[in-house]
Amino acid sequence: MAEWLRPRHMNEALQLLAELPAERYQIISGGTDVMVAQQLSAPRDIAVWLDLSAIPELKTVEVTTEGIRIGAGVTLSELRRHPEVQKHWPMLAASAAVTGAAPIQNRATLGGNLCNASPAADNAPVLLAYAAHLEIAGPNGTRLLPYEQFHLGYRQTALAAHELLQAIHIPFLPAGSRAYYRKVGTRAAQAIAKVGIAAWIHFDAGQGIIVARFGLASVAATPCLLPMVSHYLEGNHLKDVRESTIREKVSSDIKPVDDIRSTAEYRLEVTSRLVWEAIHDAH
Ligand SMILES: Cc1cc2nc3c(=O)[nH]c(=O)nc-3n(C[C@H](O)[C@H](O)[C@H](O)COP(=O)(O)OP(=O)(O)OC[C@H]3O[C@@H](n4cnc5c(N)ncnc54)[C@H](O)[C@@H]3O)c2cc1C
Asked: Which residues cross the membrane (predicted)?
């Protein structure tokens, strides 16, 4: 029979983590991924469940002068309804609102969505586009990692043994910033993304592009950026951007695969069109 540990504070959780052999424990937050995997796809022989759901430090949302700090245990329901998130980081409110259905959002945490490390995670593109940082806690203290360095390979993350995700930091965007988020699935709701895209575009007063950051889901083994597209757009003027060049750059940036949800060809086509739409329709 597995043991269930439910620490009440971060210090207690970190102490327990440090004492447990890495291969024997399983962290659980909302359980919406890990319980499904345990029941259906890949059951593991778990000796100890480390349940993070009673740790108040993981459930706080703080707005600072620099941006927002979201505890890893904040649920997607809380995020989609949070007035500051809706006002300053609307793409996150939007992605939280399309992650599964309301009962899932009531349990699912933002930290769980990232640490589960699905290439199709709906909130991942948004955090990539917003240039988020992750606050990771472990036996040696706390470190801050750019989110774009978190996903190392298919379902592999930069979390070391005995570490956990403590919070997500997103900066305020400068004036002139526009955002665009779109999840393309089989249905409008309750479908895993064929392509998910989030864009942060920062224009100068004359439609010159200062920053163009795109986060993508479901087009590679991990959630990813579009560095070649960004390089082409940044410093360019909107009127000089060519759709054919966007296509070329998207093809250099991503090599999607065929799977049960879609084809590589469809994903390339849709991604190119959505990048084009994002730079023109972001608001
Ligand atoms: C019916 C259904 C529909 C869904 N639809 C979608 C969808 O449309 N889009 C989508 O993106 N996802 C979807 N999901 C997946 C899921 O709901 C999300 O990924 C969710 O955000 C995971 O959060 P959680 O708190 O439940 O994570 P858990 O299941 O508790 O954990 C997931 C993983 O993250 C690790 N983990 C959790 N918290 C931490 C932490 N703080 N530090 C370190 N590791 C941690 C766990 O060890 C585990 O490996 C769906 C799931 C279900 C069951």
From this structure: none
